[in-house]
What we know:
Elements: E1 9-10, E2 13-18, E3 23-30, E4 37-40, E5 42-47, E6 54-59, E7 68-83, E8 89-101, E9 104-113, E10 122-124, E11 134-135, H1 155-158, E12 166-170, H2 176-187, E13 191-195, E14 200-203, E15 210-213, E16 216-217, E17 223-226, H3 233-245, E18 249-250, H4 254-261, H5 263-272, E19 280-281, H6 289-296, E20 301-305, E21 314-317, H7 320-332, E22 337-341, E23 349-356, E24 359-367, E25 382-385, H8 390-402, E26 407-415, E27 418-425, H9 431-437, H10 441-453, E28 458-459
Parallel strand pairs: 1-11, 3-10, 4-9, 12-13, 12-17, 17-18
Antiparallel strand pairs: 2-3, 4-10, 5-6, 6-7, 7-8, 7-28, 8-9, 14-15, 15-16, 19-22, 20-21, 20-22, 23-24, 23-26, 24-25, 26-27
Helix pairs in contact: 3-4
Pfam family, one: Zn_protease
Cofactor: Mg(2+); Mn(2+)
Keywords: ATP-binding, Ligase, Magnesium, Manganese, Metal-binding, Nucleotide-binding, Protein biosynthesis
Amino acid sequence: MVMQHRPLTLGWEEWVALPGLGLPALKAKVDTGARTSALHAFDIEPFGPAARPKLRFAVHPVPGRTDLTIACSAPLRDRREVTSSNGESELRYVIETTLRIGEAEVPIEITLTDRTNMAYRMLIGRQAIQPDWRISPTASFCQPKLSYDIYHSAEVKLAAPARSLRIAVLSREDNHSTRRLVTEGEERGHTIEVIDTTRCYMAINTLAPEVHYDGTRLPRYDAVIPRIGPSITAYGTAVLRQFESLGTHCVNGSAGITASRDKLHAHQLLAARGIGMPQTAFAASPKDTDNLIGLVGSGPLVVKLLESTQGKGVVLAETRKAAQSVIDAFRGLRANFLVQSFVKEAAGEDIRCLVVDGKVVAAMKRSASGDDFRSNLHRGGTAKPVRITREERDTALRAARVFNLGLAGVDLLRAHDGPKVLEVNSSPGLEGIELATGKNIAALLYDAIERKVRPAPVRKRRTAP
């Protein structure tokens, strides 16, 4: 992009904007005695790969207003020692961005420093002043005046620039879904870090809760994408709760993951919201086997381990006698399980609806392989895109909402009396549904994350004096 500027007359103070940082109005002091421009910033943190380092920082754009914060990020250009007018030297980070004064826009270097006690949030040095600009040291505001009121309008959020984010993917596996999240995020200019959940440990206290990893404290992330495996649900959600206590945006919350993983609890929550599902029963005592079967029908029946995933631990019992044998076997293993009616009209097919941020963004029909009644792709099933009905879409959205999941795979059966929810998956795989539908699910997920954490003004509540 070629920047253009026109001859200007500048007073000793001017209204300026830094649109690339999401700062539409700043009152700046023009100081020809300073070589490089300076901007008030705090919480300055470098991040990103060594070859392409970035900075993120926060700005209080209005003097005296610490309750109004703008989050910014920019490529890191340099770090150099700067001597202030009072003779003090400071090692400062240097970024490059666009300065707008009146109708002129020019690229400039800016050093970042804490100017909390300064009357001006920005200082314009002589490097930013173009050769054909004229300085009138006795005049002020020669260029059009702006207003801090813009920070209280919707215009700031609508015009906010794309900000590089630092995002953690909690995952122990180097699988397709994790790699897709890393690749897509980096293509959008974000820094994506894959964190092995089991190698995290936590400092739990009221003043400064922390998450540590391999001997160091983890940095502040803009967002966390949890890909927590079923075998570590308890510990994984504990780590996620720590991030939640830090105020980090988590795509899926710990409570929703915990509830969705407990199949018995999940079915109870779905039933309480009136969401259709196969007739389900559960009992702890072996004396109740016959009554348990009677609650869901004579057969065929599905017996399902509460910890089952990807079709493992799910058995179809064709007859009542077969169901009794399977139940006795599971009880002999001291395994927790539930019994469900078999939806015969589904004919070995189910529908996976992918929900992102309250919208069904893709749907595929999965068909079982051969005589297997399980349609999971991990068990040889096949998938193709499918057009779902309004009722199916509504059911999927309601099911995801029960667990407050920002990313969910909702599995449905098509029954004669409407869709039945089989499961709500809080860590749905991306490979199968992206291949089947041709949709970039990872990109849609990042769209949602960016909407949640984009640099809109952050206003803190004022405490009573």
